[in-house]
Write a structure and sequence with these properties.
This is Virulence-associated protein E. Helix content is 30%, strand content 15%. By secondary structure, the protein is of the alpha+beta class. The chain folds into two domains: 177 residues, RepB DNA-primase, N-terminal domain (Alpha-Beta Plaits, 2-Layer Sandwich); 168 residues, no CATH class. It has a four-stranded antiparallel β-sheet. Strands 6-8-7-12 form a four-stranded antiparallel β-sheet. The chain has a two-stranded antiparallel ribbon with strand order 4-5.
Length: 363
């Protein structure tokens, strides 16, 4: 097929293979219009039927549209979803696209021989640094498999609008140029741990082991959180661990570095961790959890008055009222879940995992 001139001009700038994604732009959302394509032949027909036409900005392997299908990073980009364009660019973008009235996409195309390693965390960090510098939405351009609207096709949300190229310089950039113009934020080291109120821990009792299992479980869950949820989850994690610190079962000096490391593994920058974690810990410590029922003769963790959102074990540890000694066993045997229902007295809870009250974001 013959591509629209705007489309051909745009794709010529993104060298290599192209992966296309279509979604139904209309309110009724016809799933038949949602497709992943590696040939543009059907794009015009789908667009006429109401589909929005998108392209994966990085190069793929021609078999799918997931991070694992990306073979080469070829751009850095910014999405101005209602935010104004800057009066001055530190580095003028290679392409500036108007995706719909008052909304824009900016692209900095990389030199063909200067593609960075396929590291999602590093890519997202550079994307966020760029977005914060130019004033675009920092969460709207993350992900190696990110798609953006393709110029030359109609945007059909609301009044139809032809996505179009506003400017094209043809310039390409090295990674060094991108990094120098839009540097990553300086690493912010944690506030001195002594500034956090600290409650000494007691002997290696059931409550102590229980709290350690909670800390390790929360750490593992937090490290796996995806984009868009990380700050909220860190806030909830800090609050829950703070409750255990306030109850005397953990020490803040051991808890804060564990959560900091997990949040960093999830991709949160240090400045966001610093602004969220200490406050969340303090708030949790102000609502201490005594774990009153843990370790009682009725069985570990099975008291009716046990504070909501605790740990329930899949293995029958309650048979001898003991808990594992080693961290690996705690992590293997325990998982953060809501308390079991009446029909599941000794199994996994059916409710979604969560800590803290709803106004703290849950989990």
């Amino acid at each position: 097929m013959t591509l629209p001139p705007e489309t051909a001009a745009f794709l010529a700038q993104l060298t290599g293979r192209h992966t296309f994604q279509t979604f139904d732009d209309r309110p009724d959302k016809d799933a038949r219009l949602s497709r992943v394509l590696h040939d543009p032949a059907e794009l015009a027909t789908l667009n006429r039927q109401g589909a929005g036409i998108f392209v994966m900005v990085n190069e793929g392997d021609g078999t799918g549209r997931k991070n694992g299908n990306v073979t080469r990073i070829r751009v850095h980009c910014a999405d101005f979803d209602g935010q104004p364009l800057p009066d001055h660019w530190t580095l003028n973008p290679s392409l500036l696209i108007e995706s719909s009235p008052g909304k824009f996409h900016a692209y900095w195309i990389l030199e063909d021989g200067d593609s960075p390693p396929l590291d999602s965390m590093a890519f997202n960090a550079q994307q966020e640094a760029l977005a914060r510098a130019v004033g675009s939405c920092p969460d709207d351009c993350k992900g190696l498999a990110r798609v953006m609207r393709l110029p030359g096709f109609m945007h059909r949300k609301g009044e139809p609008f032809m996505t179009r190229i506003l400017s094209s310089t043809g310039e390409r950039f090295t990674l060094a140029q991108i990094g120098a113009a839009y540097p990553l934020p300086a690493r912010v080291h944690p506030a001195p741990l002594a500034t956090l109120p600290s409650v000494p821990t007691g002997p290696n009792s059931a409550r102590r082991k229980y709290a350690l299992a909670a800390l390790y479980g929360i750490r593992d869950e937090l490290a796996q959180v995806g984009e868009g949820e990380r700050n909220k989850r860190l806030n909830a994690a800090g609050f829950r661990v703070g409750q255990l610190v306030g109850g005397g079962h953990l020490d803040s000096e051991e808890a804060q570095p564990v959560l900091w490391q997990a949040a960093a593994a999830a991709g949160l920058p240090d400045n966001e961790i610093q602004s969220t974690l200490p406050r969340a810990l303090r708030d949790g410590m102000a609502s201490p959890d005594p774990l009153a029922q843990v370790g009682q003769e009725s069985g570990w963790g099975y008291g009716a008055d046990l504070v909501q959102n605790t740990i329930w074990c899949k293995t029958p540890l309650h048979q001898n009222n003991t808990v594992p000694e080693r961290e690996n066993d705690l992590v293997q045997w325990c998982k953060l879940l809501s308390p079991p229902t009446d029909s599941e007295p000794s199994g996994w809870g059916t409710g979604g995992p969560g800590w803290g009250s709803e106004d703290r974001g849950g989990w």
